[in-house]
Write a structure and sequence with these properties.
Number of strands: 27
Largest sheet: 6 strands, mixed
Strand order of the largest sheet: 5-4-17-16-15-6
Helix content: 25-40%
Bound molecules: ligand MGD, molybdenum atom
Number of helices: 27
Distance between the termini: 55 Å
Radius of gyration: 25 Å
């Protein structure tokens, strides 16, 4: 090590289940190397390629380093520098005027997963509650998944991923782990080395296919049917665990009747486009395994009936008693174990917000249609709505409104920044302090800055504090610094936090919550304490209390027959992380260009060849991509990887132009998968 070099331990803040502990080398004030922390049991000393080169983003020429105000048209992205004082004064005076005329609800905060840090992600709620602003329902990612899991299991906790290393049968359902949770890969390899079989359920072949012994490729949005077909075989062939069902589950007889009357394998085969013998073999392998481990992803829940799909799949481990078996279990999310004092962090306890709620998926409607009051100001942070939010044409039309006062607190000059009236420079997670939970493991860790904020950038907490003062709010909570908010977050009665010691956390190590690797040994977190095949909660809401398959709506093509016969899926890419790495030229180069995969049969019917520039369209709009003709997608399905910046695509039209803002059956989540489209050569 050179003498001027120093190595800091910190945490990757990006929206990914792995939440890595990392070692960052700084030389003469500059980050020169990023490595995985060998002492973290999931990180195991390596990082994904994107974050291993995060310095390319940290020092990107697209970084915003000073406050700016708009000089051109909205969307043009032309700005001139202003001072922080001028920018903050302008925001406060606009907000005071809006509040006086229309009330606080005319102001809408808009944020999501730019950083998963508890402080920088949530502390801004205090200001918006205090102002009486409209509240944002942060629904774009996993609410349907969590709602579905909750119905069956009761809480977003899971079998520890490490358990899978001892499994003899790993079933990966709708998750491209080799791209979106790479630290699960060594665990899969360990299990395989011991002879485990690995099966992937995904309509698209991808990097994870290479880790699997075989792949089942159902039509998107038919996963519930596939699971019900498996149940039919498990029950018919007596592969269920009667003792476990008796002790730990509720409603088996009702489920049995549903499955036996409504889901014969032939019917399931027609719905899913999976051959009957493949369904039967999958069920047998799962039922006969000594320790079957299920890992369920997110994307298959971003369908109209996505929560029901998750609820149904989550019944499988209950039928075979997987949770009790060595190597067995089921994993979706772990975030539910991080029972921080959220009310304290967000200020909900103090300010008791009662204002209107606006679903983030419906941003276009909120900006264009809402009245009484209309949204007159939008404050965006930790999020890139111009690129990630469905029904993009309407989102952009809303952002173009001359009478909308838009503030964007951002790290890089992305599409959302182009629409801002005022831009505020934000630091990255390498430049500020925060406390990190995970949604894929049970470790808690504090991340400290490894370099000071670049240019004039200021972290979210500091900007909210300055804005609160400008607004004349003297509440003590606006004086809290990062350390104070972390202590408040940890002021929780949750038994999971019993071993957590703040001083030890401060010294940098990852600390594991007290959650058993099988968190369901004492029972489930449902009202009955059992894994619920039958849900009284659903029944009392007038919903189907049993697992079921509901066909996807033809929403965007409903009035037009089968004008849009292809189902579009958009799996995350290994080279991007949502739109965060759209700022990095090197990552864009790895992506090559915006592409869409189409089956050879579907392609030849349309005169499309490999490389043809195609128009992908539906009733909501169109965007242009290059066709990749490949058997990696099944007939009737097209797949485009998420998510390019719209400004790097033709006519500023990103994939979200094609995405419906319809909400899911439970959880009011996004329906980004399985939207109907047609494709033609341009
Ligand atoms: N490299 C990288 N990692 C990421 C992200 C990223 O953008 N890039 N995003 C992060 C975020 S925000 C999240 S929420 C997570 C997880 O984000 P998800 O969107 O759940 O992504 P995956 O876990 O890869 O699961 C997507 C897989 O599901 C498949 N799929 C799509 N529709 C269906 C369906 O109807 N049924 C079935 N069975 N499969 C379907 C796709 O083909 C794809 O292989 O990943 C996180 N990690
Ligand atoms: N078509 C389609 N759309 C999708 C998806 C898809 O699969 N397909 N996936 C959906 C999913 S699962 C998700 S989770 C969302 C993700 O949507 P977003 O949460 O918007 O994620 P990113 O696109 O990565 O943008 C995060 C932004 O936050 C900024 N940021 C990071 N840290 C900070 C900070 O500390 N302060 C401030 N002020 N800014 C910061 C980053 O620079 C970045 O521009 O996208 C959704 N949209
Ligand atoms: Mo997400």
């Amino acid at each position: 090590m050179k003498t001027s070099e120093q190595i800091f331990k910190t945490v990757c803040a990006l929206d990914c289940p792995d939440t890595c502990s990392m070692l960052v080398t700084v030389n003469e004030g500059k980050v020169t190397r990023l490595q995985g922390d060998p002492d973290h049991p999931l990180t195991r000393g390596f990082l994904c390629h994107k974050v291993a080169h995060y310095d390319r983003r940290l020092y990107s020429p697209l970084r915003i380093l000073q406050p700016l105000h708009r000089t051109g048209e909205k969307g043009e992205g032309k700005f001139a520098p202003v001072s922080w004082d001028e920018a903050l004064d302008e925001i406060a005076s606009q907000w005071k005027k809006i509040i006086a005329e229309d009330g606080g609800e005319a102001i809408l905060p808009y944020s999501y997963g730019g950083s998963l840090g508890v402080v920088q992600r949530l502390v801004g709620h205090r200001l918006f509650y205090r102002m009486g602003a409209s509240q944002l329902l942060r629904t774009i990612c996993d609410p349907a998944a969590v709602a579905g899991w909750d119905v069956t299991i009761g809480k977003a906790v899971s079998t520890d991923l490490q358990v899978a290393a001892a499994s003899d049968f790993i079933l990966i359902w709708g998750m491209n782990v080799a791209a979106t949770s790479v630290h699960f890969v060594p665990i899969i390899k360990q299990a395989r080395a011991r002879g485990a079989e690995v099966v992937l359920v995904d309509p698209c072949r991808n990097r994870t296919s290479h880790l699997a012994d075989r792949q089942i490729m159902p039509l998107p949005g038919t996963d519930a049917a596939l699971a019900l077909g498996m149940m039919r075989v498990l029950i018919e062939e007596n592969l269920t665990d009667a003792s476990y069902i008796e002790r730990h589950t509720l409603g088996f007889q009702a489920l049995r009747e549903r499955v036996m009357t409504e889901y014969p394998v032939e019917r399931v085969s027609k719905i899913t486009a999976v051959p009957g013998d493949e369904i039967a073999e999958l069920a047998r392998a799962y039922g006969r395994a000594k320790g079957p481990f299920l890992r369920a992803g997110f994307a298959f829940t971003r369908h109209a009936h996505g929560a029901m799909a998750m609820r149904t799949i989550a019944c499988l481990p209950g039928l075979v008693g997987a949770f009790e078996r060595p190597g067995g279990g089921a994993h979706h999310e772990t975030a539910g174990a991080f029972e921080f004092n959220y009310d304290r962090v967000t200020g909900a306890d103090q300010f008791k917000p009662k204002t209107r709620q606006i679903n983030m998926v419906k941003l276009g409607d909120a900006l264009l249609d809402l009245a009484k009051p209309p949204v007159r100001s939008l404050y965006v942070y930790n999020c890139n709505p111009a690129a990630v939010t469905p029904d993009q044409s309407r989102v952009h039309a809303g952002l173009r409104r001359e009478d909308l006062f838009t503030v964007v607190h951002e790290q890089v000059h992305n599409d959302t920044v182009d629409y801002a009236d005022i831009v505020l420079p934000a630091p990255t997670f390498l430049e500020y302090m925060d406390l990190y939970k995970s949604y894929g493991h049970y470790h808690l860790q504090i991340g400290s800055p490894v370099v000071p904020p670049l240019g004039q950038s200021k972290p979210n907490l500091e900007v909210f504090r300055l804005l609160a003062r400008r607004m004349g709010f003297s509440d003590a909570c606006f004086d809290d610094d990062e350390m104070a908010v972390m202590v408040q977050a940890l002021d929780t009665a949750s038994p999971y936090f019993e071993p957590i010691d703040f001083e030890r956390l401060r010294s940098g190590g990852p600390e594991r919550l007290k959650v058993d690797s099988n968190p369901f040994a004492e029972g489930f977190f449902t009202p009955s304490g059992k894994l619920e095949f039958y849900s009284q909660t659903l029944a009392s809401r007038g919903m189907d209390p049993l697992p079921a398959y509901v066909p996807p709506p033809q929403e965007v093509s409903v009035s037009e027959g089968s004008k849009y016969p292809l189902r579009l899926i958009n799996p995350p890419s290994v080279h991007f992380l949502n739109t965060t790495f759209g700022a990095v030229e090197n990552q864009r180069a790895r992506m090559k260009r915006p592409e869409i995969k189409i089956n050879p049969g579907d392609a030849s019917q349309r005169g499309i060849r490999d490389g043809t520039l195609v128009r992908v369209s539906n009733a909501l709009g169109e965007c242009h991509l290059h066709a990749v003709v490949t058997g990696d997608v099944i007939p009737g399905v097209v797949a485009a990887e998420a998510n390019w910046w719209p400004k790097h695509m033709d006519k500023n039209a990103g994939l979200n132009v094609l995405m419906s803002s319809r909400l899911t059956d439970l959880g009011e989540g996004s329906t980004l998968q399985g939207n109907w489209v047609e494709i033609a050569p341009l």
